[in-house]
Amino acid sequence: MSIFAKIITVENFIYLIDCAKNSLILAIISVILGLFIGTIVAACKISKIRILRYLANIYVEFIRGTPMLLQLLIFFFGLPQLIPNYASLSFSTQVFIAGVVGMSINSGAYSAELIRSGIQSIEAGQWEAGKSLGMSYFKIMRLIILPQAFKRVIPPMVSEFIVLIKDSSLVSSIGATELLKGSQIIGSRYYNYIIPLFMAACIYLIITLTISYFAKKLEKRFQIYD
Amino acid sequence: MIKLCNIYKQFPNVQALDDVSLQINEKEIVCLIGPSGSGKSTLLRCINGLEIPDKGQVFIEDELVDYKNEKQLRALRQEMGFVFQQFNLFPHKKVVENITLALLEVLKKDEESANSIALKLLDRIGLKDKANEYPSKLSGGQKQRVAIARALAMNPKIMLFDEPTSALDPEMVKEVLTVMKELAHEGMTMIVVTHEIGFAKEVSNRVIFMDEGKIIESGSPNVIFNEPKHERTKTFLSKVL
Ligand SMILES: Nc1ncnc2c1ncn2[C@@H]1O[C@H](COP(=O)(O)OP(=O)(O)OP(=O)(O)O)[C@@H](O)[C@H]1O
Ligand SMILES: [Mg+2]
Questions:
Q1: What ipTM was estimated for this complex?
Q2: Which residues have beta carbons under 5 A from ligand 2 (an ion)?
Q3: CATH number of the structural domain A3-225
């Protein structure tokens, strides 16, 4: 039996897909939390209160200026000291929480920049129209500015999501068994790493291309009004 | 109904308003004319707080406007319709939703009465069949009529227009002016920044000519257009007439 037939089996694929689930879960939770953090940080960045702008800038610059792997390690080693009883959680839960927290906070910084530029790309006339109708700052923001800004931010947010799926592989270095790690586990079983790595690459590609495809459809649906 | 006392407004490189005083009475239709950069928009925007004067006082129905008081400003703006040169419709809302948004969110009307107000207004401006379109599907003239309807929905006591026809193709100017004339005939108080001399002649009670942040002269359209006193007014009119 050739080495290909030995490694490229249904069981191994199922194992890898199982691992890919972890990558996806990490990325999905992080992109949602990141969007949430990003919106709040973006609001701080454009706020009139200087201290909020200042803090938001420090956060964004710190995250964007340091490696994500380093950030993950900080949370992996830092969370047990920060949270009582963290060490009593199972190892995989510890890794998962550190991974989600690290990735969300990382994604929050990038999303904040995207959302901020989205908000600021909305014409001043939209604010003025809202004001002239007697609406408050928050109403204008929520009902007029953010819906339009989010629409403009969809394409870069999808790219951010795809980056997160790929970057979730970094969580393997603090001990998570996600897609990349899974392929290495298979590799060590057969003393052949190249073939499982290519299998993982296929799965990454299937995921990312599918997301791009549906993102394009989503964008089209939002385009009804322009 | 509106009184401005010695208003000054400075922008980084220019004195946009330079000691402007003005009174507008109920049911008056005042046209503001003047060259580009003379401060017409700034004056209009100070009235509803889109700009804050550096100095001077604005009274609206005898109430002094405190520009630091957001709540008062919001209350005042509800009573003043503002129509922009660039329409500023909400592109993500359908035509009818553009009109109902503030009815629901600011005046807290229920869905049903907001819709009925919106549809009545759309009917009045002849755009009922566009109620469920997005603004991007409308022509410029139609957009501006919707913008006027959106402002009217709040049942304002006064309407402020900042060059409502300047962004329109010539063939669409008339439909917008027609709506404005109807409003005028119904007794709406209006301040209109415009280059439409024909409209000013036909509809307004008073024309105010501004230049370099100052009111140079004001009077009935007949006086301003036929026997202007000031050299600057004459020069300006010779260019636009
Ligand atoms: N936000 C601003 N920042 C800086 N300068 C401004 C601002 N708004 C207006 N100005 C300046 O103030 C002056 C008066 O502007 P304003 O818009 O009131 O003129 P206008 O009479 O409406 O002109 P137009 O006919 O071109 O609309 C102009 O010189 C303009 O460049
Ligand atoms: Mg202007």
A1: 0.94
A2: B 41
A3: 1.10.3720.10
